[in-house]
Amino acid sequence: xxxxxxxxxxxxxxxxxxxxxxxxxxxxxxxxxxxxxxxxxxxxxxxxxxxxxxxxxxxxxxxxxxxxxxxxxxxxxxxxxxxxxxxxxxxxxxxxxxxxxxxxxxxxxxxxxxxxxxxxxxxxxxxxxxxxxxxxxxxxxxxxxxxxxxxxxxxxxxxxxxxxxxxxxxxxxxxxxxxxxxxxxxxxxxxxxxxxxxxxxxxxxxxxxxxxxxxxxxxxxxxxxxxxxxxxxxxxxxxxxxxxxxxxxxxxxxxxxxxxxxxxxxxxxxxxxxxxxxxxxxxxxxxxxxxxxxxxxxxxxxxxxxxxxxxxxxxxxxxxxxxxxxxxxxxxxxxxxxxxxxxxxxxxxxxxxxxxxxxxxxxxxxxxxxxxxxxxxxxxxxxxxxxxxxxxxxxxxxxxxxxxxxxxxxxxxxxxxxxxxxxxxxxxx
Length: 429
Fold this sequence. Notes:
Layout: E1 15-27, E2 31-37, E3 42-48, H1 54-62, E4 68-77, E5 85-96, H2 110-115, H3 117-120, H4 124-146, E6 150-151, E7 157-158, E8 170-173, E9 176-180, H5 185-195, E10 197-205, E11 218-227, H6 231-252, H7 254-259, H8 265-268, E12 276-278, H9 279-288, H10 301-311, E13 315-318, E14 341-346, E15 351-358, H11 363-372, H12 381-388, E16 394-400, H13 401-409
Parallel strand pairs: 3-5, 6-10, 12-13
Antiparallel strand pairs: 1-2, 1-4, 2-3, 4-5, 7-9, 8-9, 10-11, 11-16, 13-14, 14-15, 15-16
Helix pairs in contact: 4-6, 4-13
């Protein structure tokens, strides 16, 4: 029976064959222990000299790291194994012998590993992080599909930007200027006017010259947009979504979380509703703790971490000053200096994972914003049309996938949370 490591539990005490790579090995005079992987998981293969032909045992001892092979053997239950199973190997067929594999079990520097990212992905730690990433994606689709959303794909090449062109990658679109998208939000607003509740999931690009552990040049965003929904209702949806994803990872990624030594007790408490603090109160909170920050300034990583640590939960910071937020955010109904928006700050120092707001739905007010921000009415005429033809209250938000993966997996730097990271000084491999 040919199967995979993830499916071996169905074949206890049966003979199976798997295509695998050798991740590592150790051997004594009488037993060889093979650490095998096949992309679906990891398992130990045990080759006992007294139970196989001499040729097979010698073959096992001579195997080199990352050699590909077919192994045949009997699946055994073993409570000491992370997956609960191991393989008693009966025969080995080498497919391709790997020689001088560069990433050995010894310690390697980050730059070396990043230069070999195409191979580093094979490691147990990277495998676990990518599996968690996949579960976040899977459960995201499940959540929005179950809640009446449809997926709409906004363009990646745009003639204008959602938040100004300062941090955008410029390119030529034949004889026109174009930019790589930093957000699909404006297009998702148009989609929401057609389909009520929509979400997108795709790559976005920020030409920020930042080297922090929270920043990537290319990253993925989940961006829902909802017609007939106000800011408060959007916050409820956001906390429900994040709670759903956390529970899905806890339920479906037990082996991966264990492989990463993730403290799951910190994740088990993540359940809606989440605490909220106004921007005003957050400034006072930070001043009381002797942070040098003034009203009207945006929060940096130390500020967000201090606030999140106080709550030990994801926390919404609501109603930021109008002057530090995007032109499309709806003003607060009783104040003209703040807008109806919120950032969701993850605990444990992982920073902002969601930014969202209620959008301006009044044509005149949006036109005023165009003028304040020196935006071209010609470039944004289609966006104004959404306020001219059946405008409704609407809200939306964007969740950064890589920061969320980093938080749930307990990974320090976002460069490990995307298969091939694009960083300030890295476009290879």
